[in-house]
Design a protein that fits this description.
Elements: H1 8-11, H2 15-18, E1 24-26, E2 32-34, H3 36-42, E3 48-54, E4 61-65, E5 72-74, E6 81-83
Antiparallel strand pairs: 1-2, 2-6, 3-4, 3-5
Protein name: Mobilization protein
Length: about 80
């Protein structure tokens, strides 16, 4: 097993590297940030709701826009989608 330790020096995204890419970031308070590119593709930039799903068999995670009141509320922000 190759263990990679992530810290402040190697886990901060560089704008040049990640500009235009789909990224998900978490902060120490539990706020989730989806990149502007990903937010636009999901149709949640500037507000909306999202759901997360986990497949027990494959271990894969999914995120999708939610049209009901059950999803996480996305804050109104034009830079990225964020919620907690």
């Amino acid at each position: 097993m190759a263990l990679i330790v992530y810290n402040r020096e190697n886990s901060r995204p560089q704008e040049v590297t990640y500009k235009g890419k789909r990224t998900i970031n978490l902060d120490s308070r539990g706020t989730v940030y989806l990149s502007k590119t990903m937010s636009i593709e999901l149709g949640i930039l500037g507000g909306g709701r999202v759901n997360f799903a986990h497949d027990d068999e494959t271990g894969d995670w999914y995120i999708c826009r939610a049209d009901d009141s059950e999803g996480f509320i996305v804050w109104k922000d034009k830079r990225c989608a964020r919620f907690s």
